[in-house]
Amino acid sequence: MEGAGKLVEDEELREAMSEKGLGTPATRAQIIEGLIYEDYIHRSGRELQPTPKASSLLFALRHFGVNELCSPELTGNWEFKLKQMEHGTLPRIEFMEHIVDLTREMVSRIKRGDIPDTVFRTLKTPCPKCGGTVQENYRKFKCQKCDFSIWKVVSSREFAPEEIETLIAKRSVGPLTGFRSRVGKPFAAMVRLTPELRAEFDFGRQAGDDAAEKVDFSGLTPLGPCPKCGGRVFEQPMAYVCENSVLPTRRCDFRSGRVILQRPVEPEEIKKLLATGKTDLLHRFISRKGRPFSAFLVRAADGNVGFEFAPRAVKSTPRSPGRNAQAERTPTRAKTESKPRTRAKRLANRARTPRNKQAA
Ligand SMILES: [Zn+2]
Ligand SMILES: [Zn+2]
User: Fold this and answer.
1) Within-domain flag for 187
2) Which is nearest to 17 in space by CA: 3, 30, 32?
3) C-beta neighbour count of 199 within 10 angstroms
4) In angstroms, what is the span from residue 352 Cα to ligand 2's centroid?
5) Cα separation of 174 and 202, whole Å?
6) Nearest ligand to the C-alpha atom of residue 132
7) Are residues 108 and 125 in the same domain?
8) How much distance in Å is there from the Cα of 202 to the middle of ligand 1?
């Protein structure tokens, strides 16, 4: 973002941004983490990639004519004015009036504006109802012949076209991360197409759900031995489960969520855990407070899956060692149940209790 000034045409504005760019070095990392947390960008190795949500936001802003928010010019402009204030050539009141006017003006443009149903793209997979063509617009994926359609944004999360292709072709997709409940808590879920062809959440079998049917593991490759009973562990839609944890016997209770603290856990990672007792260092777990952290998943003494935290590198910015920083260093045991919201809460709560039994 230091380089954002290069995108600004006007010489004076570019000059004003040359020292600061967008944000300061101290706030830059936070801005990026914030964008990741709100699902505007994804981190892929060293790359930051915009998500469908980001593309939709820019599409909407351009349609509303709120171009100020789509380019670094606005920040350049403000940096320039802040400089002027610093040198006493611009009164503070004038700057604040400008901010209020601009905000009011942009809000009214958005209120008045409308977004046309421009076609973004055509899906490769035909309509599951009539075989017609399914097209994506700003709001929906919609068949051009019949009434089949799927909302693009569900529980504050926008579907990517590839996800809808999979959903239509295979009748289910996921688990997908990044949904938000009404009170803003993140959760993960499978999404499936009902026989009536509506998209619906599927949380898999809930803990304590005794009515669960017998699961058929035939045709699946076991990922490794169960740490509790030595049975075979298989991949299921929402969790990795021991073959003996399902009907008819149910004499084991080993299961580990396929998404833990908003991070999908890949079959390869569970394979390594089952074989060696520990995964590689895994990144991008998100704590309850929304902070990303890295940890190993380990086989705890009782056979459940727990966290072991990486030794923290000393940071250059001084930060008081708050409770969280302490907790993230403390290995704790954390059972992974299937219910996403309560699990996140429980994991976070456990992570705060000081020094439990050491994970094996
Ligand atoms: Zn159709
Ligand atoms: Zn087992």
Assistant:
1) yes
2) 3
3) 19
4) 28
5) 9
6) 1
7) no
8) 24
Looking at per-residue pLDDT, the higher value among 316 and 337 belongs to 316
Q: Which phi and psi angles does 122 have, rounded to 5°?
A: -110, 130
Q: What is the pLDDT of residues 248-261, one digit of tens each?
A: 778 899 999 999 99
If one counts every other C-beta atom within 10 angstroms of the C-beta of residue 183, the result is: 6
335 inside domain: yes
What CATH number is associated with residue 37?
1.10.460.10
Of 27-36, 117-126, 293-302, 319-328, the poorest mean pLDDT is in 319-328
b/e code 225-260 from CB counts within 10 Å (16+ = b): ebbbbebbbbbbbbbbbbbbbbeeeeebbbbbbbbb
Phi then psi for residue 326, to 5 deg, are -65, -50
Residue 329 Cα to ligand 1 midpoint, Å, equals: 53
Q: Give me 350's structure tokens.
A: 């456990």
In angstroms, the CA 122 to CA 142 distance is 10
The residue out of 57, 82, 112 marking a domain boundary is 112
Instruction: Return the pLDDT at 23.
Output: 59
In a domain, 81, yes or no: yes
The domain of 340 spans 257-352
Q: Which of 88, 112, 136 is the last residue of a domain?
A: 112
Averaged confidence pLDDT in the chain: 79
Say yes or no: 6 and 105 in one domain.
Answer: yes
Give the ligand at the shortest distance from the Cα of 230. 2
Q: Looking at residues 307-321, what average pLDDT do you find?
A: 63
Q: Spell out which residues have Cβ within 5 A of ligand 1, the ion.
A: 127, 129-130, 132, 143, 145-146, 148
Cα of 191 vs centre of ligand 1, distance in Å, is 20
12 with 74, same domain: the answer is: yes
pTM recorded for the entire structure: 0.59
The total number of structural domains in the chain stands at 3
Nearest ligand to the C-alpha atom of residue 245: 2
Instruction: Write phi, then psi, for 136 (nearest 5 degrees).
Output: -100, 130
Looking at the structure, tell me whether residues 102 and 127 fall in a common domain.
no
Q: What is the distance in A from the centroid of ligand 2 to the CA of 294? A: 27
In a domain, 196, yes or no: yes
